[in-house]
Specification:
Helix 1 (2-41) packs antiparallel against helix 4, helix 4 runs parallel beside helix 6 (150-180) and helix 5 packs antiparallel against helix 6 (150-180). It is built from six helices and no strands. Helix content is 77%, strand content 0%.
């Protein structure tokens, strides 16, 4: 079971990384296009008007609706990285007080924390599903690209479901660690 969960978490992180990389490339192209567009309307347009008009007619400029794509993509990427972070206990930890406690007490605290994380991840997935259904029902579209808003919610919901599955797995494993007294997850 652990191998499956680990592959699932790593797969989501890889997918999130690919989406984030594509978003970075999109932003670079958009910024470059915006800069070229400014130059073509500025001094290049005054010095070489024919060339400038030709490039502008080709569509050189910012990517229309880039922020709409980035908004949906970054939301997905954040949820896609959560499963691996949860599996590896990669969340920020302040252990000023807990470092002085016994291993048994630390196992109990870790178990309680993971149970809360799992519950929150399940709640987030449920709320994303509700938001997605509301956006689908009302037919809301983005302003510039006019793509359905629920698409972004659906992508984030899928990643949140994986995060919730991993969170529940980690919580159950931490409970087993408390009962057995042995560390299963490192």
């Amino acid at each position: 079971m652990h191998r499956f969960i680990e592959k699932l978490a790593r797969g989501m992180a890889l997918l999130g990384g690919m989406v984030l990389t594509l978003l970075i490339l999109l932003i670079c192209v958009s910024v470059l296009g915006r800069s070229l567009n400014t130059l073509l309307h500025g001094w290049i347009g005054q010095m070489i008007p024919g060339f400038s008009k030709w490039l502008l007619d080709l569509g050189v400029g910012p990517v229309n609706g880039d922020f709409e794509i980035v908004e949906a993509g970054v939301a997905f990427a954040i949820f896609a990285f959560l499963p691996l972070c949860q599996l590896n206990s990669g969340h920020a930890v302040v252990d000023i007080f807990t470092s002085k406690l016994s291993p048994r007490v630390n196992r109990v605290l870790r178990m309680l924390t993971e149970i809360v994380f799992a519950a929150v991840l399940v709640l987030i997935a449920v709320q994303l599903f509700g938001g997605m259904m509301a956006k689908l029902r009302f037919g809301e579209n983005t302003f510039i690209l006019q793509f359905p808003v629920w698409w972004g919610y659906a992508a984030s919901f899928c990643a949140a479901v994986v995060a919730a599955i991993v969170g529940v797995y980690v919580a159950v494993t931490r409970i087993r660690e408390c009962v057995s007294g042995k560390e299963i997850l490192l």
